[in-house]
């Protein structure tokens, strides 16, 4: 009996051969690359990734998909299947080499943002990420300052990675057919870090506070967190709104706050 996609796992399985080949070409895995696939599902991308890399780690939460995957792809020495939730998985357990893992995944749309942040917290071992996400989420990630969709997600991802939307994929490429369009995203961690955040946790608080009430000026949205004089010292207009401030500006403000002892 064919596996029935499970809503609780956010499963939508790729099945379009042309789309699959385009995705594999975009990732461009080379022999010997250490590739980790999140959510292999029925193995649409898995077979190609395994053939290209020669060896593959996959993380799959649905126990019922694991044996069919093993039967389809064979040699367990080349394919390591880790049954579990990617939200809890520690990628550092797979390598001792910095910037070595290539992450590929068709992420469940119902947990895509927390899973993305979980991956960003492990960037020291990641070389690049190629992720299938809801198109709306990808658009927000790559958005530029001054646009309506530029927000917390844009700043937090772009502060850590170069983000590129590679292609859009229609619902018909999946079974069951989702109600939204998808897009394929490439993230390449800045190495060395582009912004050198002195206190990443405070930077995250700062960005969250700025965008928590988008209609407010920075002076008001950051009241109690950043003194107005520090905004001016950072070269920012206290009357500006969150979406008018660039990624580098948020990093500069957070680092200035850290140097001034405001974050203590």
Short recap of the structure:
The chain is 33% helix and 19% strand. The protein has helices spanning 17-27, 46-53, 66-73, 112-120, 135-142, 152-158, 200-212, 218-221, 228-233, 247-260, and strands spanning 13-14, 34-38, 56-60, 79-83, 101-106, 126-134, 161-169, 174-175, 182-189. Helix 7 packs across helix 10.
Mean pLDDT: 91
CATH class of the largest domain, named: Alpha Beta
How are the strands of the largest sheet arranged? 4-3-2-5-6-9-7
Alpha-carbon distance between the two ends: 58 Å
Rg measurement, Å: 20 Å
Which stretches of 5+ consecutive residues score pLDDT under 50? 1-10
Shape: elongated
CATH T-level topology of the largest domain: Rossmann fold
Largest sheet: 7 strands, mixed
What's the order of the H and E elements? EHEHEHEEHEHHEEEHHHH
- Computed structural class: alpha/beta
* Helix percentage: 25-40%
Beta content comes to 15-25%
In the residues, how many domains can be counted? 2
Please tally the β strands and state the result: 9
Number of helices: 10
CATH architecture grouping of the largest domain: 3-Layer(aba) Sandwich
CATH superfamily of the largest domain: Vaccinia Virus protein VP39
């Amino acid at each position: 009996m064919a596996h029935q996609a499970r809503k609780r796992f956010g499963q939508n399985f790729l099945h379009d051969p042309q789309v699959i080949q385009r995705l594999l070409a975009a990732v461009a895995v080379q022999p010997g690359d250490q590739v980790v696939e999140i959510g292999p599902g029925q193995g649409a991308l898995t077979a190609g990734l395994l053939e290209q890399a020669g060896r593959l780690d996959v993380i799959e939460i649905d126990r019922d998909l694991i044996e069919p995957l093993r039967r389809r792809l064979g040699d367990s020495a080349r394919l390591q299947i880790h049954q579990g939730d990617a939200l809890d998985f520690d990628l550092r357990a797979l390598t001792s080499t910095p910037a070595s893992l290539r992450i590929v995944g068709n992420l469940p749309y119902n947990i895509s943002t927390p899973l993305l942040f979980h991956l960003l917290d492990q960037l020291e071992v990641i070389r690049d990420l190629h992720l299938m996400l809801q198109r709306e989420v990808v658009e927000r990630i790559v958005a530029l300052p001054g646009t309506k969709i530029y927000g917390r997600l844009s700043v937090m991802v772009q502060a850590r990675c170069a983000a590129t939307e590679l292609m859009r994929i229609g619902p018909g490429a999946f079974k069951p057919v989702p109600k939204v369009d998808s897009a394929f995203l490439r993230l390449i961690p800045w190495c060395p870090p582009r912004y050198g955040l002195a206190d990443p946790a405070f930077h995250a608080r700062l960005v969250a506070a700025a965008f928590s009430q988008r209609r407010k000026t920075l002076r008001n949205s950051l009241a109690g967190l950043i003194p107005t004089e520090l905004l001016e010292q950072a070269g920012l207009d206290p009357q500006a709104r969150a979406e008018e401030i660039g990624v580098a500006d948020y990093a500069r403000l957070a680092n200035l706050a850290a140097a001034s002892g405001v974050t203590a």
